[in-house]
Amino acid sequence: MLLRRSLPILLIASSSLVLAACGSEGNSVTGQSAAVESGSQLFTARCSGCHTLSAVGAEGSAAKVSSAQKTNGPNFNKRKECYENVIYAIQNGGFSGAIMPANIVVGKEGEQVAAFLAKYAGSEAMNSTTKCAPKTSNAGG
After folding, report:
1. Rounded distance, CA 38 to CA 25, Å?
2. Which domain holds residue 50?
3. Domain of residue 113, CATH code
4. 93-123 pLDDT tens trace
5. Distance of CA 42 to CAs 36, 77, 90, Å?
6. H or E element that contains 111
7. pTM given for the model
8. Coil, strand or helix: which one is 48?
């Protein structure tokens, strides 16, 4: 009788665990500087809802432009970014000022996210014309 009552609870609990794992590849950033690894964790926590980047399992961008919503940010698998550009976007709410909250991370945390994106963004970019100046911050990378 106890098993009969416990079975539905066990099924619900196990289903919840399986569904929680769907759509998340996880953070594969390891063996990097402390700044880059911390930046990857911050990106996952603060940015992955609107941006896509497979290195951290983030899938926040629209798959097609035609199905994009106002909150869909750039797909960083396909878009290379420089450290300075990321700092600018963080401080100013993106480049268009549309929806990204300004200063979503600040100070050292902003530098860590910038170091992470400068290293990992653009892994699928084709013919990227983004020219990046050497990084001058103490964030490491």
Report:
1. 18
2. 25-63+71-120
3. 1.10.760.10
4. 888 766 888 889 999 999 999 999 999 999 8
5. 10, 17, 13
6. helix 107-120
7. 0.70
8. coil
